[in-house]
Amino acid sequence: MDVYGLTKSLVLWVGEFRKEHPEASPDLATFLTWAASKTEEEIPEEALEITGFSIEAELAAYVGRLGRYSNTYIKAALEGLPFSTDMEFAFTAILDGAGQVGKTDLIRMMAYDRSSGMGVIRRLLDKGIIEEFPNPEDKRGKLLRLTEKGTESVKQAYQEVPKAAHLVSRNLSEPEKRQLLRLLKKMDDFHYPIYLAEKKGHTLFD
Which of 32, 125, 133, 155 has its CA 20 to 30 A from that of 174? Predict the structure, then answer.
């Protein structure tokens, strides 16, 4: 295709993009992601290997599998450290960055359910990795922070966890990693408010 023809095609595509997204303030990355989706072939039914149902169900299944792979890699990387699960390390890492956080806020920051989150916090307290203390702004509440042991443990973990992180995305190119990160962030921006609303008592699928 000559330069004129390519330019004409791009102009037509921009017009089509604007029709589909009249309310958007698009940047180049968003447009390129949209354009890439337009050039991809339809996914045949036989490609829906896990659920065999729909592309949406297949996406959910692959996201779930990826999470399990990641958890396995992180658990292996943390072997020998005082973390029994990947979530114990994740909670500790959040406290390392935030300093002092309430129990409920910490669980929400991890988008975790309350009962499981409280279980993680209890285990970390029992291991002496974190400690709780009175909230100076609310005498009825308590805050969490790392102990000296916890600070040392999370520093050691930071040396090992990148091995797991690199393994998760090892077969992707740098542009693919950036595109995937944009898509995952877009999904998280949509789902996190739903998670918070559900925790406040709103019903899903209303």
Answer: 155
**What whole-number distance in Å separates Cα of residue 127 and Cα of residue 137?**
27
Q: How far apart are CA 171 and CA 163, in angstroms?
A: 14
User: Is there a single domain that holds both residue 108 and residue 26?
Assistant: no
pLDDT band at 123, cuts 50/70/90? Answer: very high
d(Cα 144, Cα 132) in Å, to the nearest integer?
Answer: 4
pLDDT in tens, 58-88: 888 888 999 899 989 998 999 999 998 889 9
pTM: 0.67
